[in-house]
Amino acid sequence: MSKNNQPLPDNVTTQKNNDDITHLLLRPVAIDTYRENVAYLHRDCAVYRAEGFQALSKIEVRANGRHILATLNVVDDLSIVGCGEVGLSEDAFVQLGVARGEKAYVSQAEPPLSMEALFRKINGERLNKEDFRGIVSDIAQHHYSKIELTAFVVATNRGEMDRDEVYFLTQAMVDCGRRLDWKESLVVDKHCIGGIPGNRTSMLVVPIVAAHGMLCPKTSSRAITSPAGTADTMEVLANVDLPFEALTEIVLKHHGCLAWGGASDLSPADDVLISVERPLSLDSASQMVASILSKKIAAGSTHLVLDIPIGPTAKVRSMRDAQSLRRLFEYVASRLNLSLDVVITDGRQPIGFGIGPILEARDVMRVLENDPAAPNDLRQKALRLAGRLLESSPDVRGGDGFSIARDILDSGRALTQMNAIIQAQGSHHFDYHHPSLGALTFEVKAPKAGVVTSIDNMHIGQIARLAGAPKIKGAGVDLLKKMGEQVSAGDVLYRVHAEIEADLTFAKDLCAKASAYMIGSADDISHVFVEF
Amino acid sequence: MSKNNQPLPDNVTTQKNNDDITHLLLRPVAIDTYRENVAYLHRDCAVYRAEGFQALSKIEVRANGRHILATLNVVDDLSIVGCGEVGLSEDAFVQLGVARGEKAYVSQAEPPLSMEALFRKINGERLNKEDFRGIVSDIAQHHYSKIELTAFVVATNRGEMDRDEVYFLTQAMVDCGRRLDWKESLVVDKHCIGGIPGNRTSMLVVPIVAAHGMLCPKTSSRAITSPAGTADTMEVLANVDLPFEALTEIVLKHHGCLAWGGASDLSPADDVLISVERPLSLDSASQMVASILSKKIAAGSTHLVLDIPIGPTAKVRSMRDAQSLRRLFEYVASRLNLSLDVVITDGRQPIGFGIGPILEARDVMRVLENDPAAPNDLRQKALRLAGRLLESSPDVRGGDGFSIARDILDSGRALTQMNAIIQAQGSHHFDYHHPSLGALTFEVKAPKAGVVTSIDNMHIGQIARLAGAPKIKGAGVDLLKKMGEQVSAGDVLYRVHAEIEADLTFAKDLCAKASAYMIGSADDISHVFVEF
Q1: Could you tell me the pLDDT band of residue B290, with boundaries at 50, 70 and 90?
Q2: Of B400, B425, B450, which closes a domain?
C-alpha cells in the first residue's frame, strides 16, 4: 500500500468477518518443523479457497485472543487436517497455546513491519538502531519465515555490517529477551567460539573460579554441529535442565553452575536465527559477536574471557582473522559495558583425548582428580583461562591468576567445588575409571612410521558424530596419539566407540575415506604463535 | 573433510550397509510444500535414530536406482508415517517417481558440490561461468533447500553481481533445461517486466504480428502476485495448458499461440528460484534479467521487445533506474545473441479498465472487435509494441511498424487471427458483451470533486486479488475513471466484483483503508517522459 492513498472511510462500509463462515477448528499436527511455524489447511477448505492463499505464503492464525504467524502448507489428506480445521506444527501449536478443537481464524498475514528495513539491508544499506530493534523483535516473536530469516542472515553476513551495526544488533538481541541481574559487581564467564573437539575447559574453569568465590553462572548450549557441547558432557555427571529458580539458588549458594541455557529466554532471537545459520553452516563474524555477547549480557555477566582458537582446521584460520575478530568483539563489548579479555589459543588439534560426552567427562574428571592420566593440554588451557578470569577480581594481581588457579586445582578445592555443584544440580552416577563407553569399537592405525603432524578438527568431529555422539553419550572417538608424537606403522591412532551397528558402519566408512591424521616429519607441523 | 587427510584404505575395512536393517518403505504424504522436497520420518524410526539426523537437515532418499534430496521433517504421528516408512511431500514423491511401498534408503545428504561457490558469493566474491553452471544445475535438480535458495537469491541481489555474472547466470539457466529450435531466422516475442494491472498487450500483439506472418510462440505465466497473468486471462477464451507437441503444431500453422509456459521445462531453475523470490517479494535486476532472458532464449526467440513501465507505483520508479535496467538487459541479450528492443513506457496507472481475468479478457476483445468502448490506452500501447516487433522483419521500414499494426487491427485481421488461435487451442465460451462477472459488487466513490491524479498499481491490484482474482475468473476491479479525468464528489471511481461473500468483505476492508485513488488538481499529476 503506497503512502499517498487517501483513506475513504465515509464511502466504504467495513463489515466484520462473519464468524460462522470463516472459523476453523484448531488441531495439532504432529510434525516437528524445527522452529518454523507451519500451518496446514486442506486444499478444499472453504477459507483457503476464499482467501486466495498460496502454499508457502504466510498466514495469521488467531484463537482465544492469541495469535501466531505461520507458513502455509496445503494438505490433500483429510486424516492430516479436515476441511473445517487448521493444523499447526508442534512448536507452532505450543506457541499459540490454545487447546485442540477451539475456534480459530486465519487470514493473510500482514508482512512484519520490519520487512522494509530488511529490504534496505538486502540492498546494501546501513541500518540504524531502531531498524535492528524492529527486525530482532519480529524475529524473536517468530514473525519471520525461514526464507526471511535466511535473507536477514545472508544480508548481514561478513563485510555487510559495520561495527556499529553489530553493536545495534547485539543490543537489540539483548533487549528482546529476559535479562538477569545478580546484584554483584563481578559476574564472570568464559566462552569459546567453538570448532575444537574435546575443548571442555568450562567444566574446569567454573569450579576453579567458583572455589575462589567468584560468581560464575555458566549456561551452555547442547551440541549443534559438534560431537558434544558443554551441556551434553555435564549431563553425564548431573542434571543440566533446571528451572530458572533452582539455578539461581545454586549459583548464589555455590557461586557457579554448569547448566543448559536453552529454556532461559536469554536473547531469544538468537535461538531463532540459529535455525537457519546451522543448515547453511554460516557463522559470520557479525552473527557470532552478536550471538555470544547478547547471551552473556542477558545472563548478567560483567567480565568475560573469550577463547578464539586458531589453526588450519579451526573456525579461525589465521592470526590476521583472529585479530580482526578480536577487535570486533572488543568494540561491541565496550559499547555494552562488558569487560572482555580475548585470548587467542592453539586450535591446531582437539583438546584432551576424548571426543563425545562420556569420553570428555572422563577427561574432565581426570584433571579434577589430578589423575596422572589426565590430558595435560586440557589442564594447562583450563588453568590459564581460569587464571585470566581470576585476575578480573580486584584483589588478584596481574600475572598471579595462573598460580592461584593451579593451587585451587592441585589442592582438590576445584574437585570439591565441582562435586558440590554436581550434587546441587542433581548428580548422575559416573565412575570415570570405568566409563560406560559404546561397546562396539574399531581402531584406526598409523599407515607408516613418523610424527603426527596434524589432526583435522572437523573431520575427527564428524567421525565422532557418525559414531553416535552426542545423542549416544558413550559414543565418540578416543585419541591415543596427539600432534608431535612419534608413531610406528600399525600403532593405534584412535579408537572409535559406538553402540549401534549402523553407527559403527557409518563412522568406519568415513574413516576409510580419510583418517583425519597426517603422519610426516616434525618439520611438517604447522606453527601458530599464540599466548597458549 | 579437509584436503590433506591421508586415506587409510588398508587399515579400515569398509562394510556395506545391511539392507535389512536400514531400508524403509516409501509412501506419499499428501502435503503440498510448493517446490521444496520434504521427507517425513517418524521420531522413533530406527534409521532416524541411528543416523543422528536433525530436523531441517537435508537427506538423500534412494529407491529403485533413483534418488532425490529432501529436507527432513520429524513426525510424531504414526498415521502420517510409520516407523518403517519414509514419507515424501507431493512434489517430492512425483519427482522420485517410484511407487508407494517400494524399498527406500535414506542417508545424510552430501552438500551439493556447488555449495562452496555459493559460500564464496555470500562472502562477496565474483563467480565465474563454471561456478554459475554448477549452482544453477544443482538448483534445477532440486538439490538446494529453501534456505540455500534464499541465500543464493539474496547473495546475488542488486549490486552484488556485475553484468558478466548476470550473463553467466542467464546462460547457465538456459543450459540446464530444454531449448527449442523453430528453424526460422525470425522468432519474435514481447515481454513486460510486470507490475501494471490490466497490461494485457500480449493478447493483442500476438495476433497482430502472427497475422503479418511472423512466428510468435508466446508462452506466459499465470499470476504469481498479481490479479491476473496473461495465461489466466487467455484461459477465459481458450485452453492454455497444452502438450508441447500440440503447441508446436499450432504455432507452425497459425504463427502464434498464447499458452501457459509452466510445464515446458524451459529454464527450470527459474521455476525453482521463484519459490523463494515470491515470498520475499524480491525482484532484483540481476534475477529479473536472468529469468526473462533465459526463458526467451530457451523458447527459441530471436527478437524480443521488452516493456519497462515506469511510474511512482510501478516496479521501476525513475528513468535513471529504467535506463540502468535497460543497459543490463541489452548487455546480456547481446552476449546471448538475442536481438532486443527495450521500450520504456508509462506505468503511472493500470492499463485498460478491467483488472481480473474476465474483465481483462473483455477489454482485449473490445480492442480486437474495434468496439467504441475499447480502452484506448490498451489499444495504443499494443499497437506501438506490435509495431516495434514488426520492424524486426527485414521487409518493414523503421517507423512503419505502427501503421502496419493499426491496419491489421482495424481491418479485423487481428481478430480473425486471434479466433483461429483460440479455436486451435480449444475455445471456451465467452461473450464479451455479457461477461460473467462476480455478482457480488460494491462501488468506491470520489470523496470530493477534482481530477484523478494517481491510481496506485499495487494497491488496486491487491484489492482485485482479495476480491478473488485470479482464482475466481469473474472477480476483480473495473475502473470507471482513469488518471486525468475530472470527477464530482460521489462519482463512482471503480466497481469491485466478487463471487464469495468473504472475498467481498476482505476487498471492502482494504478499500476502506485506502481507495488507491488520489483526487486533486491537474497540476498534481506526476509526469513521466517516455516514448509511449
Answers
A1: very high
A2: B425
A279: nearest CB among B43, B147, B456: B147
pLDDT, tens digit, for every residue of A177-212?
A: 989 899 999 999 999 999 999 999 999 999 999 999
Do A43 and A124 lie in one domain? The reply is: no
CB of B132 closer than 8 Å to CB of B155: no
Query: Is residue B49 situated within a structural domain?
Result: yes
Closest residue of chain A to B496, computed from CA coordinates: A12
Residue A283 a catalytic site member: yes
Q: Is residue A181 part of a domain?
A: no
Q: Cβ of A150 and B150 within 8 Å?
A: yes
CATH number at residue B142: 1.20.970.50
* Mean pLDDT for the stretch of residues A245-267: 87
DSSP label of B434: S
**Which range of residues forms the domain containing residue B63?**
19-108
Verify whether the Cβ–Cβ distance B313 to A2 is below 8 Å: yes
Q: Sheet containing B517-520: give its strands across.
A: B486-487, B450-455, B517-520
Q: Which of A283, A341, A371, A491 is catalytic?
A: A283
Whether A304 is in a domain gets the answer yes
Q: Do residues A290 and A170 touch, judged by C-beta distance below 8 A?
A: yes
Contact status of A343 with chain B (Cβ, < 8 Å): no
Q: Smallest Cβ distance to A21: which of B447, B501, B515?
A: B501
Tens digits of residue pLDDT in A328-368: 999 999 999 999 999 999 999 999 999 999 999 999 999 99
Of A151, A279, A506, the CB nearest to B56: A279
**3-state SS, residue A367:** helix
Closest CA in chain A for residue B6: A514
* A-to-B residue pairs, Cβ atoms closer than 8 angstroms: 285
| A106–B contact, CB cutoff 8 A | no
Q: Report chain A's mean pLDDT, rounded to a whole number.
A: 90
* Number of domains present in the structure of chain B: 4
Q: Do A58 and B279 touch (CB under 8 A)?
A: yes
Give yes or no: residues A485 and A421 share one domain.
no
Determine if the pTM surpasses 0.95.
no
Q: Is A123 on the interface with B (CB under 8 A)?
A: yes
Q: What's the CATH number where A85 sits?
A: 2.40.40.20
ipTM over 0.85: no
- Whether the CB-CB separation of B380 and B335 falls below 8 Å is answered with no
Same domain? A343 vs A458: no
Kindly state whether A17 is in contact with chain B, defined as any CB-CB distance less than 8 angstroms: yes
CATH at residue A150: 1.20.970.10
Domain end position, chosen among A108, A131, A150: A108
Q: Which letter, b or e, does each residue of B304-327 get, where b requires 16 or more Cβ atoms within 10 Å of its Cβ?
A: bbbbbbbbbbbbbeeeeebeebbe
Query: What is the C-alpha separation between B36 and B142, in angstroms, rounded?
Result: 8
Same structural domain, B259 and B270: no
Measure the CA–CA gap between B12 and B6, rounded to whole angstroms.
12
Only one residue has cell 539455578, namely A247
Report yes or no on A311 lying in a domain. yes
